[in-house]
Structures are given as C-alpha cells and as structure tokens.
TrEMBL record:
GO terms for molecular function: UDP-N-acetylglucosamine 2-epimerase activity. It comes from Streptomyces polyasparticus. This is UDP-N-acetylglucosamine 2-epimerase (Non-hydrolyzing). Keywords: Isomerase. Its EC number is 5.1.3.14. Belongs to the UDP-N-acetylglucosamine 2-epimerase family. It comes from the Bacteria. InterPro entries: UDP_GlcNAc_Epimerase_2_dom (IPR003331), WecB-like (IPR029767). The keyword Membrane does not apply.
Length: 371
C-alpha cells in the first residue's frame, strides 16, 4: 500500500510524527509531501528534527498568502505529484488550507482520500478552519474520527458510512514526549527571558485571526494577559507578531514576557512547568488536558468539548466581561479532582489509522474509487 501524507502547518507535523513512526513498522510505502504553508524554522524544521520525522519527499514551497492564493497554490502544485505517484491513499490532516487543498486535488484525480481528525466542528463559520473541515470531510472517502463526539457530528451530516473511530494521534505523541521529558531526555525549554521556571507562571499563545486581526480585540486580549498577577510566557506565533507590529500593539508589557514558538518537546516541558495555559490553539487545549494543566481558552467555542466537560478547560470569549479579580481567579483556578477518563483514546491511534487504511483498501467502495 502506498500512502502520501500531505502536511504543511505546525500542528500537522505533530500529527504526522506518530503516523510516520507507525508506517515505519510496516512494509507500506509512506511518502511525505510538505506544502510549505509554514516555512519558518520555528514552525516547521524543528518539528522534523525534534520528532524524528523523515525529511519530506516533496516540498511544494507555497508559503503565505490570502486563503485563495495559498489554497490554490497547493491545489495546482499537487497535480503533478499525484500524477507521478498514483498512491493508494492520500492522507490529509486536520483543518488547514493545506488539508482542504490536498483533499480536493486528490478527489479530482480519483485518488482515495482519508481525513485524519475528521468530524471536529466549532459551528463557527467565521473560522477558516471550519470551512476546511466541513469541505474535507464531505469530499474524503474515509473519515478517521478522533472522538465519539466527532463520530456523532459526521453521522449527523450523513457521513456515518464513511467514518471510523481511530482515536487521537496527538495522545500518542504527547504522552511519548511527556515521558521523555520527565525522564530528563530533553534539555530545559527556552522560555522567554524573565520567566523563572521555579516560580508559578502561565503559558500563553494567541494566533487565531479572530483574536489577532482586529486591533481592538488584540489590544484587549494582550491587556488582559498583561494585567495578570503572575508572569505570563507568551510564545508568539509569527501571525501574532506581524499583526501586533502592524497595529502598533506592544506585546511585552505588564506580566507578559515574549518568547518564540517552542519545539514540541520544549512545549510539553513548558506546559508541565507551568501553573496553567491561556490559549486560542486547538492543539494546546488538548495538550494541557493530557498533561493535567488547567487551560483557559479565549474563544467563544471549542472543538475539544471533552476538555471542558471534564473541567480542565474553560472558555472565556472576552476576558473584559469578567472583573480583573475573576479573570485572574479563572486562569489560576485549581485543577478538578475527578478522573477525566480517556476521551481521546489510549495512545495507539496511529496504529489504528494504519489498520483502518489497510481494511478500507480491501473494501468494494475503495476499489471503485481507485483506478
Ligand atoms: C494555520 C492554520 C491554523 C493552524 C495554524 C497553526 C489555516 C487556515 N490555518 O494558521 O488552522 O492552527 O496554522 O500555526 O490553514 N507566517 C510566518 N511564517 C510561517 C508561517 C506563517 O511568518 O512559517 C506568518 C505569515 O505572516 C502568514 C501568517 O503567519 O501570513 C499566517 O500563516 P498561515 O499559514 O496563513 O496561517 P496560520 O495563522 O499559521
């Protein structure tokens, strides 16, 4: 079986790591196409080296651009790659512009597509990721859902027959790296200057367009972090840095110490060292949950509803709707006492994915799609 993984943005590289490792234990041919959506070393290269992912077989080098330009560039660059490779499966990950472009390009060439992390929904049509998820799920042949909730969403949209519960591959990688960090196999993370890791601090990230692109909203969120009574290590995504500069918003103020995005092991170590997390990232909400740190999500909704139900994640769409005291109490609240269970699976999701691809390859539906 020949499988091509299409990746391009940081969270996809994290998900690729356990998949590439699971394929390496088999006879299957696994090829990696990097679209180049993320190109900064901090967002791309360090994930390949740090997580032991083989170098991409093909790099499309599309870079940044408006949604249409970026998606279109991936779409047109993939045609010759797929034509040359004719894989048995195209595997796309998550919800970025690289995901939807990979899925669309493949179905148009009658290549079977599997979508990893299918069925997530925020029901917020302002998010570019929401369009990408819905479109990818509806054009893919096999929907690999991370959770029961995702399976329900897919069934609700009439996609049950193409869906399978695989579990969440982020559990595989997060727990493996956590164990390595706790065993002292990684150096201490490069936290922003001014953060003393022996004292309580919060770890923060902001990168969603809804939070970064409106100057008033961005200034208010940065102000809310700056006013907290403990130091805040703000790991600044390039979009955040670019928008803050553009709008003349100072990030390094009050409690905030600004640093660069961390490699994956550094991020896991930083979460473990922190008193809690404030973020708008999907992945980090779940990493905080898996690493048993409380998370406050500055968004009106989350796709990872299990983290909220278990009491480890709280949504605060607008910190200024709370008093300063209530906001500080929220982000520094104690951890819940109840066992959160394992809503994201047992850390064997990547093996499930390989097995499901093998099983579905033998299905009549697959044979009809494949040439
Ligand atoms: C993308 C994904 C988002 C994911 C995030 C993880 C989409 C629609 N969004 O958002 O789902 O959570 O990746 O980080 O695909 N930039 C750089 N260097 C880079 C990459 C980006 O400087 O290597 C800057 C550029 O100014 C660029 C901006 O960041 O325009 C946004 O990058 P882009 O890939 O378009 O989206 P993200 O915000 O990273």
């Amino acid at each position: 079986m020949k499988v091509i993984s299409i990746v391009g943005a940081r969270p996809q590289l994290v998900k690729l790591a356990p998949i590439a490792a699971a394929f390496a234990e088999t006879e299957h041919e696994h090829r990696i196409v990097h679209t180049g959506q993320h190109y900064d070393a901090d967002l791309s290269d360090v994930f390949f080296s740090g997580l032991g992912i083989p170098d991409p077989d093909v790099h499309l080098g599309v870079g940044s651009g408006s949604h249409g330009v970026q998606t279109g560039a991936v779409l047109s660059a993939l045609d010759p790659v797929f034509e040359a490779e004719r894989p048995d499966w195209v595997l796309v990950y998550g919800d970025t512009n690289s995901t939807v472009a990979g899925a669309l390009s493949a179905v148009k060439m009658h290549l079977p597509v599997a979508h990893l992390e299918a069925g997530l929904r925020s029901f917020n049509r302002r998010m570019p990721e929401e369009h990408n998820r819905v479109l990818t799920d509806h054009c893919a042949d096999l929907l690999l859902a991370p959770t029961e909730e995702a399976m329900r969403h897919l069934a609700h949209e009439g996609l049950a027959a193409r869906s399978a519960l695989a579990g969440d591959v982020m559990v595989d990688i997060c727990l493996r790296i956590r164990d390595a960090v706790l065993a002292g196999e990684h150096p201490a993370p490069a936290l922003p200057e001014g953060i003393d890791r022996t004292q309580p601090f919060l770890l923060a990230t902001l990168h969603r367009p809804d939070n970064t692109d409106d100057p008033e909203r961005l200034d208010a969120l940065v102000g809310a972090l700056a006013g907290l009574p403990v130091p805040v290590a703000l790991l600044a995504h390039p979009r955040l840095v670019a928008r803050a500069e553009e709008h003349g918003i100072e990030l390094a103020r009050g409690a905030i110490q600004v640093g660069r995005p961390l490699p994956y092991a550094g991020l896991v170590a930083a979460v473990l060292a922190s008193a809690g997390v404030v973020t708008d990232s999907g992945g980090l909400q779940k990493e905080a949950f898996l690493l048993e740190r409380i998370c406050t999500t500055v968004r009106p909704e989350t796709e990872w509803i299990e983290t909220v139900r278990a009491g480890w994640n709280t949504l605060v769409p607008d910190p200024h709707e709370l008093s300063d005291v209530k906001w500080a109490e929220t982000v520094l609240r104690p951890s819940p006492a109840d066992d959160p269970g394992k809503p994201y699976g047992d850390g064997r999701a990547a093996h499930n994915v390989v097995r499901l691809l093998e099983e579905w390859q033998d299905s009549p539906q697959h044979a009809k799609r494949a040439r």
